[in-house]
């Protein structure tokens, strides 16, 4: 290399008559141009060889990991390592008479080499991320958060290495000095650290997965979790709007996860009809004769009435007053009717709880609640099933001589006028 440099220098000064300073510059430029051509040729050969080998290897294997490596450009970036290393080794021979240029170019190449390593790692991590998302076991895990944490650590190490290279300080000493500023770094990366801790806790405790439907009123989130990142959780709401909430909110704030409902055998129906208290009464024989025509409770009324009559006769109950002894009430029979109706409904899961219960009386009346689970958990179908049940229940109320509570608009208007 040295002899070749002298040959070019002598050719520029003696044959072309250049001045010494200009000949030195020209010598460097010619050598640099020739070396660049050689490096480009090496890069082209290395790149073709590595990429061709990777593609051939990926076609023969069943796993998609190597295909994803090619997709994210890992072989192409790896092929740059050889030219950069060769150029770094050749710098002392090109600039052995120019120590400042030699030092400057070597520093620049080390910086480029650090960035190249980072980009290679980033490509590999992107490959790992996409590969794990294709795996059923990890599809609903917050892989993005872990990848971002690794990339953040790598970028911190990269910039620390670059600063150490530029300042010509040993990496260990530089990083020890940097530790003194850890309090400032913790303050700067507070949200990132909180998000990372939250991601770990969410993953370990399995509280939220990608694909879960969550409701968090504080942030206006009510929809499916699309992505869990280091700093934010992306939620697509039921109206297709997107809400981004802080990752650490998943461990600091209250929210509702509907996964239990989707994993179970049904979606809960829990709604009440309010019956006017003044319409509740005992049933007489003539009432029972009419209600026995309702097929769902015919057998129940017959057996129940026989049981009541037997009890009253054995205890010599005076039935001239209806309140004496045991009696059936219209709300009790209606409650039994709803139990039979909901239990026989084709859209209700019979293996889960079915219950018709009275809630504590209110100033409006007696709430009668239907508690059951629809077999179809899809929102639109669930709403249809619930509406179908309550349409029937509200239409059935008058058959039991009951009334549904509703505000008296005439009375309300009189109060407003007064």
Automatic annotation (TrEMBL):
SUPFAM superfamilies reported for this sequence: Sm-like ribonucleoproteins (SSF50182)
Keywords of this entry: Membrane, Transmembrane, Transmembrane helix
Annotated GO CC locations: plasma membrane
Record has tRNA processing as a keyword: no
Subcellular location: Membrane
Predominant cellular place of this UniProt entry's protein: membrane
Gene Ontology terms describing biological process: cellular response to osmotic stress
Superkingdom in the source lineage: Bacteria
Domain Mechanosensitive ion channel MscS, first and last residues per copy: 191-259
Residue ranges crossing the lipid bilayer per the database entry: 25-45, 108-125, 146-165, 171-189
The keyword Membrane appears for this protein: yes
Protein name, UniProt field: Mechanosensitive ion channel protein MscS
Organism per entry: Nonlabens agnitus
């Amino acid at each position: 290399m040295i002899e070749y440099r002298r040959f070019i220098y002598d050719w520029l000064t003696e044959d072309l008559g250049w001045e010494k300073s200009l000949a030195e510059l020209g010598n460097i430029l010619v050598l640099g141009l020739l070396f660049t051509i050689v490096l480009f040729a090496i890069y082209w050969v290395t790149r073709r060889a590595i990429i061709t080998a990777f593609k051939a290897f990926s076609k023969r294997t069943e796993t998609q990991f190597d295909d994803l490596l090619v997709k994210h450009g890992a072989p192409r970036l790896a092929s740059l390592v050889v030219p950069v290393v060769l150029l770094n080794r050749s710098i002392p021979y090109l600039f052995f008479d120019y120590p400042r240029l030699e030092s400057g170019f070597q520093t620049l190449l080390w910086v480029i080499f650090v960035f190249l390593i980072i980009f290679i790692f980033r490509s590999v991590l992107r490959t790992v991320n996409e590969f794990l998302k294709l795996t059923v076991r990890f599809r609903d895990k917050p892989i993005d958060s872990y990848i971002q944490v690794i990339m953040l650590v790598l970028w911190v190490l990269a910039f620390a290495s670059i600063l150490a290279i530029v300042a010509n300080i040993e990496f260990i000493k530089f990083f020890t000095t940097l530790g003194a500023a850890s309090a400032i770094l913790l303050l700067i990366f507070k949200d990132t650290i909180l998000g990372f801790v939250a991601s770990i806790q969410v993953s370990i405790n399995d509280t939220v997965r990608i694909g879960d439907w969550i409701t968090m009123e504080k942030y206006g989130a009510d929809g499916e979790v699309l992505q869990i990142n280091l700093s934010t959780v992306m939620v697509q709401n039921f109206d297709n709007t997107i809400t981004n909430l802080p990752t650490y909110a998943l461990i600091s704030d209250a929210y509702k996860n509907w996964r239990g409902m989707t994993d179970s055998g049904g979606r809960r129906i829990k709604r009440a009809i309010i019956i006017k208290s003044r319409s509740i009464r005992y049933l007489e024989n003539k009432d029972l004769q009419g209600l026995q025509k309702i097929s769902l409770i015919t057998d129940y009324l017959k057996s129940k009435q026989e049981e009541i009559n037997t009890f009253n006769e054995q205890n010599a109950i005076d039935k001239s007053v209806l309140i004496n002894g045991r009696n059936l009430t219209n709300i009790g029979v209606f409650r039994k009717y709803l139990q039979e109706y909901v239990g026989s409904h084709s859209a209700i899961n019979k293996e889960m709880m079915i219950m018709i219960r009275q809630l504590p009386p209110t100033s409006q009346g007696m709430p009668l609640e239907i508690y059951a689970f629809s077999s179809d958990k899809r929102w639109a179908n669930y709403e249809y099933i619930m509406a179908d049940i309550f349409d029937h229940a509200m239409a059935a109320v008058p058959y039991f001589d009951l009334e549904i509570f509703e505000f008296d608009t005439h009375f309300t208007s009189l109060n407003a006028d007064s």
